[in-house]
């Protein structure tokens, strides 16, 4: 099974951020596909509704299934 594309991962990140922190507004600051390990490493900056300041998070996402392997808020 091939790795998910960047566009597919961006869609998954949006869904995971909505569930984890109720954020719809986010920017991907960096994204790297670690092909040998089989995951995407993604740094995001997001803003929750009605929040004054942005926050950051790190997501490690399985490159084939799109499931979150790790989520670190404030990373």
Overall helicity: 10-25%
- Indicate the radius of gyration in whole angstroms: 12 Å
- The number of domains is 1
How does the major sheet shape up? 4 strands, antiparallel
Strand and helix order: HEEEE
**Separation of the first and last Cα atoms:** 30 Å
Strand share of the residues? Answer: 35-45%
Mean pLDDT, rounded to whole units?
A: 95
Number of continuous helical runs: 1
Uncertain runs with pLDDT below 50, 5 residues or more?
none
Q: Order of strands across the widest beta sheet?
A: 1-2-3-4
Shape: elongated
Structural class: alpha+beta
The total of beta strands comes to 4
What does this structure look like?
The structure is a single chain. 21% of the residues lie in helices and 44% in strands. The protein is α+β, with helices and mostly antiparallel strands and 75 residues long. The protein has one domain. A hairpin with a 4-residue loop joins β1 and β2 (39-47). The longest helix is centred in the first third of the chain and has 16 residues, at 6-21.
